[in-house]
Amino acid sequence: MEVMASSSDTHFSLFASTYDSIESPQYISFADNIPEAKDSFFDRRNQDLSSKQLTNKHYQTLPNDVSDDFIRPLEKIGLKNPTKEQEKIITSTPFRVQGLEPFPWRVNSKPQAAPNLDKQKTGIKMQPFSFDERNKQLQQRKIERVKTVLQAEKDARKFRANPVPKFLQKISINTNTTDMTINSKLKHKCATENSDSAPPKFRARSPKVLRRPPFKPIVPKQPLMLPSTPILNSEQRAKERKIFDNYLKNKEQLEAELRQLKEVALKKREEEEILKMRKKMVPKAQPIRYFKSVQVAQVAKRPLTEPITPAVIKRQRR
Asked: Which helix (H) or strand (E) holds 314?
């Protein structure tokens, strides 16, 4: 089964590979063509990378990339002749396809007649859609994407030496002149000492101390201030201890007095009890006390009981 492709479809087929290479929202026509598993728009994981600003230099735009200024006029051109502004945009872009120019009717920047694309017949083979093939392609794209990311990270970790500077700065050495002068003076002194073979003569210094007046102590005019005795904690504790000892002494005296008073009272009480007991021990005449007469119960008169022999005894024979 063959399907005739329209002029817009043929124009789209010329630049299909360029649209697939651009990481941005793509132009897709579903007018006559049936989608296949190899189409890029089935990859739902493909993100819009145009919004991200990639700082890595491996993702920087190269001079042969297709710009958006070249893509926008293609949606409106069709088979009509382009305007002057569109011609400037198309000719200024460095994009080229092997075997094709930006437009088939513009070769070597000379105007030519547009070919009649209606007479060209393109056949499209109908194939059933399969999820297995789509999954394989998605997996392959994922593996390639991971490989590119790993390679970019590996390249970023490589050592890149800085370039050699164009000029070298001169190093100025600061010399200290003071050390040199001191050394020269010492050398000169040593040379003079060595030159004089005779020993130096002794020269006594003038006795300035003997000419000075003797030392006299100066008495201060203000009266001497006696230092105030400090308040020691030990003295305060000694006073408190003395007061406490007097309190204990008075307390012991009171307790001793109370103890003596108690002993005197106890002895007095004992003596009184002894006198009472002695008085009780003295015998006294006691009269017979009055008692009630004892009433004996009278026994009723009755006949005496006769004892009966028990039946255990054997009876006498008659």
From this structure: none
Structure-token match 């050394």, residue found: 183
- pLDDT digit string (tens) for 122-165? 667 788 889 999 999 999 999 999 999 999 999 999 888 888 77
Dihedral of the alpha carbons of 163, 165, 166, 171, in degrees to the nearest 10: -170
Q: Which of 109, 39, 102 is nearest to 73 (CA)?
A: 102
Per-residue pLDDT tens digits for 178-207: 666 777 888 888 877 776 656 667 888 888
Q: 3-state class of 68 per DSSP?
A: helix
5: buried, middle or exposed (CB in 10 Å: 19+, 13-18, 0-12)? buried
What is the distance between the alpha carbons of residues 81 and 104, in angstroms, rounded to a whole number?
12
CA-wise closest residue to 136 among 43, 49, 21: 43
Nearest alpha carbon to residue 123 among 19, 10, 15? 10
Amino acid identity of residue 252, one-letter, is E
Tokens 């009755």 locate to: 302
Beta bridge pairs of residue 100:
97
